[in-house]
Amino acid sequence: MLFDSLPDRVTVYEVSPRDGLQNESAALDTAAKVQLVDALVSAGVPRIEVTSFVSPKWIPQLADAEALIAKLHEEGRASARYSALCPNPRGLTRVLDTSLREIAVFVSASDEHNQKNLNHTIDDTLAGMREVVHTAKNRGLFVRGCISTVWGFRSQDDVAPRRVAEIGRALRDMGCDELSLGDTMGIATPTRVRDVVVRVLDDHPAGAVSLHMHDTRGTALANVVAALELGVCSFDAAIGGLGGCPYAPGAAGNLATEDLVYMLHGMGIETGIDLDKLIAAGDVAAALVGRELPGKVHRASRAGRR
Amino acid sequence: MLFDSLPDRVTVYEVSPRDGLQNESAALDTAAKVQLVDALVSAGVPRIEVTSFVSPKWIPQLADAEALIAKLHEEGRASARYSALCPNPRGLTRVLDTSLREIAVFVSASDEHNQKNLNHTIDDTLAGMREVVHTAKNRGLFVRGCISTVWGFRSQDDVAPRRVAEIGRALRDMGCDELSLGDTMGIATPTRVRDVVVRVLDDHPAGAVSLHMHDTRGTALANVVAALELGVCSFDAAIGGLGGCPYAPGAAGNLATEDLVYMLHGMGIETGIDLDKLIAAGDVAAALVGRELPGKVHRASRAGRR
Predict the structure, then answer these.
(1) Which residues contact A119 (CB under 8 A, 6 or more apart)?
(2) Which residues have a Cβ under 8 Å from the Cβ of B231 and sit 6 or more positions away?
(3) DSSP A17
(4) Domain residues of chain B, as ranges?
């Protein structure tokens, strides 16, 4: 019967401290970031991308990466498995001076987006990543390879699934331990998710593939269901739907962690997360950034309490 | 392969003129309602629930039901297939004095919700409906039987799928031509949708079942995908996500028609609707009610144009 072979358990990879806060105009101080991460850890979120080792010149909001990692790894503090974006060799040098054991590297599947975002061709970006991944693996780090605009930049038809699979193999071959496939523009639909995921799963075990869906057009959870049906059991999300849509201010970006967890639990799929505490973490996030967040469970919960 | 047997075509049943506008505090005048319906018809929306023949004492916003039907059926005006809610024999008497050929009757699957909403037990409500449906069928009307809170009132576990199937059979046996299954509280998840739909399809052809999902927790389109996989090919929606959540102001209610159509078209499923014109109809709706609507494609489109 339909849904009879869904995964029993899903891993949630939280991106709000990095992907959410880098899109906020005002930087939070390190203590505020620690407060957000603490709230997520306390809800049982198992993996968190906490910052980026990008140049503070580009993203001043995340300039405190070293201080944040040190604080989060303080003795006695409850912690989860942390990761950080690492865009280049200089970023990796900084990472290696911290206690962080996991990084994420990234490239676009759309040539146009890669040029706009990174000012390089995809091949040039892959060449630079190879160096970073090689060094990171030699130093024993876990490396996540993220592909953005997997489902297109201007429409879901402008990146061929075959091209995504090629880039996925390139990331695997340079040593990435897992892949995250991102619908950066929030334009994917379930059949197109199938087209890509089926090809990627030819080259990678399901346990090494995560989906990073945006909810810009309301399709994020429908796309998650398609991936679940194919055996994917790891999904990226951001508390309250924080961040993730620099191209269209006012539109929704990242899939909200609360929405993802609400649906998974309702389908009998375990996450190890306490939904009530997660909703409380969303309240912390909204208070810290000082604005209403777009996540639907977040909003329904707040409306219900008014 | 996954999704290989999805329907080729889906019928969209638009509820905004009734379900949307009855939840707006300020009533629109008849001309404004005609403008909204005209915009929907012009986009190719095939079926529209345009009003309710409820007592104007209860819902003054829809007191112009007769005038609206007369206006919409004026000679020379492009039109779709129209329907209206008909809560009781008195409402039916009013309907029969108009040119309307289709009504919708309704009952809750949750005892608690039926008591709160209609102040009757489910059995008493069904007895009253029987009389209305009998007369309507004798007069040659098409009758839609709507069940609300199909996926529960306080949680998705407080209404048994078996109970929904029983009520569905009661509606069929009294003469209803089709069923609409409503997730009034927006709490359903895909596996629970499967549990209910599989049972209901034991008693009704797939072509006689529509789903009315709310997006309060972001799961509406995921639930639509589950139903599509089971062969359901009719879905209720409201332009821009207008209306549908009287219990939690500020939270999202009805699934937005634009989000539904965006996903269906992206999956290669035809609706006969022009998405660009539908987005324009959403702009009309937002201008008429004078506030930002929650639909995601609606918001993304407006953000993209800013």
Answers:
(1) none
(2) B5, B7, B201, B206
(3) I
(4) 12-85+238-242+254-306, 101-234
Its pTM stands at 0.97
Q: What is the pLDDT of residues A264-274, one digit of tens each?
A: 999 999 999 99
Nearest to B230 among A2, A156, A296 (CB): A2
Instruction: Verify whether the Cβ–Cβ distance B262 to A219 is below 8 Å.
Output: yes
CATH class of B12-85+238-242+254-306: alpha beta
Q: Which helix (H) or strand (E) holds A112?
A: helix A111-118
Check if the beta carbon of residue A216 is closer than 8 Å to that of residue A191: no
Query: B66: exposed, middle or buried (C-beta count within 10 Å: 0-12, 13-18, 19+)?
Result: middle
The answer to whether residues B165 and B197 touch, using CB atoms and an 8 Å cutoff, is: no
Q: Tell which of A156, A263, A279 to mutate to test the B interface (max B CBs under 10 Å).
A: A263
Name which of A3, A187, A222 is nearest B194 (Cβ-Cβ). Answer: A3
Please tell me the distance from the alpha carbon of residue B236 to that of residue A6, in angstroms, as a whole number: 27
Beta-carbon separation of B217 and A263 below 8 A: yes
Cα angle A232, A41, A221; round to 5: 35
Q: Are B103 and B92 in contact (CB under 8 A)?
A: yes
Which residue from A190, A215, A218 is facing B3, i.e. has the nearest CB?
Answer: A190
> Among residues 257-276 of chain B, which lie with CB inside 8 Å of chain A?
259, 262-263, 266-268
Is residue B151 less than 8 Å (CB to CB) from chain A? Answer: no
Q: Say whether the ipTM exceeds 0.90.
A: yes
Q: Which positions in chain B touch A191 (Cβ < 8 Å)?
A: 3, 6, 266-268
C-alpha atoms less than 13 angstroms from C-alpha of A201 in its C-beta half-sphere: 17
Pairing state between β B11-14 and B234-237 = parallel
Which CATH homologous superfamily contains domain A11-305? Aldolase class I (3.20.20.70)
Residues of A in contact with B256 (CB under 8 A): 218
CATH class of B101-234: alpha beta
Quick: pLDDT tens for B172-199. 999 999 999 999 999 999 999 999 999 9
- Residue B44 CB: number of other CB atoms within 10 A? 17
Would an 8 Å CB–CB cutoff place A192 in contact with chain B?
A: yes
Same fold, B12-85+238-242+254-306 and B101-234: yes
